[in-house]
Amino acid sequence: MSKILVGLKRVVDYNVRVRVKPDGTGVVTEGVKMSINPFDEIALEEALRIKEKGGATEVIVASIGPADTQQQLRTGLAMGADRAILVQSDAPVEPLAAAKAFLKLIEKEGPQIVLLGKQGIDDDNNQTGQMLAALWNRPQATFASKVELDSGRAKVTREVDAGLETIEVDLPAVITTDLRLNEPRYVKLPDIMKAKKKPLDTLPIAELGIDAGSQFKTLKYEAPAGRSKGVMVKDVGELVAVLKQKGLI
C-alpha cells in the first residue's frame, strides 16, 4: 500500500458550549476555540498506526474550509501526517460537495484507503463517507471500531444497532471511524515545531470544478429548550403516580 488519505474537519472544540447568535442566523464562532473533529482525529490516528506497522508509506491529511483551517491541518501534521492539502472555501460546504472534492483529491493522489470520521460533531450529517464511496465506485466500511489489513483487503469490525458486525472489503475503499477504534496520541511541542516545515498545499475549491453552492437553506437556528426541574419522590408508588400524571405510562 502506498498512500492513505485522511479527511480533517474544522469544528468548534467539543469542550466549548455552543451559543446561538442573537439573530438566530448561526452559532457564535468569533473568539471560540476550534479543533479537529474528534472522529477525524481518530481516523488520523488509525492511519498513522497503519503506517507505523508498514501498511502505508505516506499519510496525507486534507480539509475543506477557510484559510484558518490550516491550523487544524498543522495539528494533523504534528500528529505525524506527512503532508497536508487545504481545499479552500470561505462558504460552508455540504456533504455532497465535500465528497466531490475528496474524489478529485483521490484522482490526483491515488490512495488505497480514505479514512474519514463517521460524522462531524457540528452538523452530524453522517453522509460524506457514504457519498464518497458511491461517487468513487469503491467499497465502504462505516462506523469502524477495528481495522485489520491483509493482502489488499480490509477486515473491519463495525458498530451497528444490534452490536458488532465484521465485514471484509477490497481495497481501495472508504472507511469511516467510530469512537472506540483508538485513542489519538498526544501532540508534543517538538512535533509541533517539525510540522511547520512539512508541506501544506492550498487550492481554491473552484479549481476542482466543483459547485460548492448550498442546496439547502437554513431558516433559523435555535438553542435547545432548557431542562425542566426534577421532581423528588419518596417511593416507587409516588414515582409511578407522577409518571402517570405526566402521561408517560
UniProtKB/TrEMBL annotation:
InterPro entries (alphabetical): ETF_a/b_N, ETF_b, ETF_beta_N, Rossmann-like_a/b/a_fold
Biological process according to GO: carboxylic acid catabolic process
Keywords, alphabetical: Electron transport, Transport
A Pfam family it matches: ETF
Natural source organism: Povalibacter uvarum
Transmembrane regions: none
Organism lineage: Bacteria, Pseudomonadati, Pseudomonadota, Gammaproteobacteria, Steroidobacterales
Protein known as: Electron transfer flavoprotein subunit beta
Keyword Metal-binding appears in the UniProt entry: no
Cofactor or coenzyme needed: AMP
Database matches in Gene3D superfamilies: HUPs (3.40.50.620)
Recorded superkingdom: Bacteria
Function: The electron transfer flavoprotein serves as a specific electron acceptor for other dehydrogenases. It transfers the electrons to the main respiratory chain via ETF-ubiquinone oxidoreductase (ETF dehydrogenase).
Domain Electron transfer flavoprotein alpha/beta-subunit N-terminal per the UniProt entry, residue ranges: 24-212
Record's subunit section: Heterodimer of an alpha and a beta subunit.
